[in-house]
Amino acid sequence: MFLDYLLHAQWVSLVVVIIAGLLIGLEVKAHSVNKNLTKEIGSVRTFSFIALIGYIFASISMNLFIVGYIAIVMHLLLFYNSKLKTTKSGIIIFLLSTLVYSFGMIVIKFNIWFLLTIFVAVVFISNINKRLEHFYTIFDEKEIEIFAKLLLLSGVVLPLLPHKEISDLIPVSYFKIWLAVVVVSLFSYIGYILKKYLFNDKGYLITGILGGIYSSTATTIVLAKKASSGNAPYLFSSSIVVATALMYLRLLGITYAFNFEIAQILLLPFVTLTLLTLVVTLFLYRKSKKDTINPHNTTNEDKNPLELSTAFLFAFLFIVMAVLTHFVLNKYGNIGLNILSFIVGFTDIDPFVLSILSSKFSVTSQNAATAILIATGSNNILKAFYAYIFSKNSAGKISALSLSLLGILTIAIGFLHHNGVS
Fold this sequence. Notes:
By secondary structure, the chain is mostly helical. The chain has helices spanning about 1-10, 10-35, 45-60, 60-85, 90-100, 105-110, 110-125, 130-140, 140-160, 175-200, 205-215, 215-225, 235-260, 260-285, 310-345, 350-360, 365-390, 395-420. Helix 13 (about 235-260) packs parallel to helix 16.
């Protein structure tokens, strides 16, 4: 009760407003000293008086508060004009002055806690400049454009699309098509950002881990090309194999996002395959201790995964796979679907997997899970081929053997798991 009384007592609000203004003044003073600025607006006390005037005027009437705000703004404009003559045109002091003037109104309209939250935000933003200066040295301005594209794909385009299926031939809605694009783009974007800004120079193994989040196939090609130098075969092969481990987890995550029932069926096989792949990775990585190459000498060859042309291509492939799957199921049944799964594994499997998850085919969840496992396995065989072709050395042979065995095992698990349940 006493605490509640203090929070609502007018004199307590007045004290908090004055102290907050005083502390902001101290921040401004410290900024002026660090920057060797001699011509600034008032002193530490000035901000306390601004906060006090704002509180009093807000307590009396809104009209008086507005008049006081206009007066302060006019004064700041005159002072700013004077600053321009000294070629110092920063406006941070003026923004803080008007913000401090609003402290009284904030306390009256809301509460003390809201004012304290704003005060903490002001202090945080005021002291973030050094960190921002460091960020500017590594930040690519194009990332804003990439993030804007992600928002465009998910927040603008997606809600506008209808949920009704396009036709009997294309048993999927425009919403599901674009949702697939958004989900895959989001996974790709997260892996892209993590690798580019947090782990860019942390070694080839990290490249394999993060690359597997957005494209294990592309990562396999990049690392195989690097491995063509002939050095560190076990380091490169472990990095290539670990990308496939992350592919299993990525596909499992996408499956949970679209079809919980199929995801539950795939949970045990995918987790088992992930653990097995990680064991192979660990074995190869331990053997890489004798390698002489510097694993931190990497270059970032990853491309922006959110190019709109790529998104549109993915949407087109998604529709093609939905139509093709629909045709094969109607014409050849589950056997045809399994054959199709094996074939599409030698391309980009994401559109096929998402067409299975998003469309209303006359296929059981078990058969759908089998198709996904077969496509994943054949994709591993494709990556084995890429690993050998682009390196043509020991690293390629080790990677190709590991990925081929994983591919065959994945396909076998698909059939065994299907037959066991059926």
